[in-house]
Design brief:
single chain, 371 residues, alpha/beta, Rossmann fold, seven-stranded parallel β-sheet, six-stranded parallel β-sheet
Length: 371
C-alpha cells in the first residue's frame, strides 16, 4: 500500500519556520508522504534540503489584505488540483482555501493553530480587519475535527470560544550539538544580549529592548536576528538614538545558521506585552532555543513563559517590558554570578526534557490513526 499523502500549507517562506519543518519531518518519518506549499518573494532565503517535498508560491504583495488575498487564491488553485489524502493548514491565514478544498474533494483537514490569531496587536487597532478574520474563524473552527496548538493558554481560549477538543504540541527544538561561530575580536570582552526570531513585531518588546541600551554601559552589545513588522522601525531608531556601535541587526537566517549565533549570548530575551491576547497567550520557541544553547533568559511574565521560567529556574521574569525595567533586569541578572551560573546549568538540564524527541510523541498520537 502506498503512503498516505498529506499536503501542508503555510504562508511563511518555510526557511525559518522551525515548527512546520519539525512537524513535517516527523510526519515523513512516521510514513506519510508529505508535501509542503509555502510562499516566497524575490528576497526569500533558498530552501534547505528536507526529507519531505516542498514547493513555494511566488507572490508580489507583502502587506495588507492583498498579501492574504493573493496567496490564498493561488493556494486554493494549487491544492484544488493536487493529489492528496489529507490537508494540513497552519494558522488562520491559510485555513479558508484548505477548508473549501476539503469540502469539495472530501479530504480530511488537520489544523495547527500557532497562536491566538485574532488577538494579534496588528488587528487590535483595526476593528474591520479583526471582524473579517473572526468571521472566517467562527465559521470554520467549530467544524474542525483535529486541532492542535502550541500551548495550554491558546488551547483553553479556543476551547472556551468553540468547544473543540484541542491537543498541545509545543514548539521545542531537536537536540543537537551546536557549534557557535568564532567570536570576532571586536566582540570580545563585551556582554552580548540577543533577541532572535522572525516575529519581531509590535508588542514583542524589540523597540523597548533597543531603548534599554541607552541605560547600559558601552561594554554591552545587543543583537537582533530575524525579521518582523517592527524591524524597519528598530533600524531607524537605532540610527536616530545613535546606537549603531553597540546594536547589530542581522536579517533572518536559516535555523542552522541562527543557532551558531545563539550560543554567543550571555542573555536571551522574550519580551511579549501583556496588552494583547496573542502576546499574552504566547510561548515563543526562542525560549527553548536559548535553553538549548545554555543562555539564561530575561522574559516578561506572561502565563506560559512564567510557568517555564519558574519551573526550570533558567532566568528571571519582569512585570513590564518598558526600557528602564529591562535595563535594570539585565544589570540584576549579571550582578550575582552564582545565580547566573545556576541559570546556565538549569537551561542545559531543562533542554533534555524540553526537546522535540519528547514532544513529537504527542504529534504521533494525533496522526497515527490516519496512517
Amino acid at each position: 500500500m502506498s503512503a498516505k499523502i498529506i499536503t501542508v500549507s503555510v504562508i511563511s517562506d518555510l526557511t525559518t519556520d522551525q515548527r512546520v519543518i519539525r512537524i513535517c519531518a516527523t510526519l515523513q518519518q512516521m510514513g506519510f508522504n508529505v508535501s509542503v506549499i509555502a510562499r516566497s518573494f524575490k528576497d526569500s532565503l533558498p530552501l534547505d534540503e528536507y526529507s519531505f517535498k516542498t514547493t513555494r508560491i511566488k507572490c508580489f504583495f507583502r502587506k495588507g489584505i492583498m498579501q492574504y488575498a493573493e496567496f490564498n487564491f493561488k493556494l486554493l488553485c494549487k491544492i484544488l488540483f493536487c493529489k492528496t489524502d489529507y490537508l494540513l493548514a497552519n494558522d488562520l491565514d491559510v485555513l479558508v482555501p484548505n477548508f473549501i478544498v476539503s469540502k469539495i474533494k472530501n479530504k480530511f483537514l488537520f489544523y495547527d493553530t500557532h497562536e491566538y490569531f485574532t488577538g494579534v496587536p496588528e488587528l487590535k487597532s483595526s476593528h474591520v480587519k479583526r471582524k473579517f478574520w473572526k468571521f472566517f474563524e467562527d465559521s470554520i473552527f467549530p467544524k474542525l475535527k483535529v486541532v492542535y496548538t502550541v500551548n495550554d493558554s491558546v488551547k483553553n481560549k479556543y476551547f472556551e470560544e468553540y468547544g473543540n477538543r484541542i491537543s498541545v504540541v509545543r514548539n521545542v527544538p531537536v537536540t543537537q550539538k551546536i557549534n557557535p561561530i568564532a567570536l570576532p575580536e571586536k566582540w570580545k570582552n563585551k556582554i552580548i544580549l540577543l533577541l532572535q526570531g522572525a516575529g519581531v513585531n509590535e508588542g514583542r518588546g524589540g523597540l523597548e529592548l533597543l531603548e534599554a541600551m541607552k541605560y547600559l554601559p558601552e561594554n554591552y552589545l545587543l543583537f537582533f536576528i530575524g525579521s518582523g513588522t517592527q524591524w524597519e522601525t528598530i533600524k531607524q531608531k537605532r540610527i536616530e538614538w545613535n546606537l549603531q556601535d553597540n546594536v547589530y541587526m542581522i536579517d533572518k537566517l536559516p535555523p542552522a545558521e541562527l543557532q551558531k549565533y545563539t550560543g554567543l549570548a550571555q542573555i536571551g530575551f522574550s519580551l511579549d506585552s501583556f496588552d494583547d491576547l496573542n502576546c499574552l497567550y504566547n510561548l515563543p520557541n526562542k525560549i527553548f532555543d536559548y535553553m538549548h544553547a545554555g543562555v539564561p533568559i530575561i522574559a516578561t511574565a506572561i502565563p506560559e513563559v512564567k510557568y517555564i521560567i519558574e519551573k526550570y529556574k533558567c532566568g528571571i521574569l519582569i512585570e513590564s517590558n518598558d526600557a528602564k525595567t529591562i535595563a535594570l533586569a539585565i544589570k540584576n541578572i549579571l550582578e550575582n554570578k552564582n545565580s547566573y551560573e545556576r541559570y546556565k546549568l538549569n537551561c542545559i538540564k531543562a533542554a533534555k526534557e524540553l526537546c522535540w524527541e519528547n514532544e513529537s510523541k504527542k504529534l504521533e498520537i494525533i496522526y497515527l490513526p490516519y496512517l
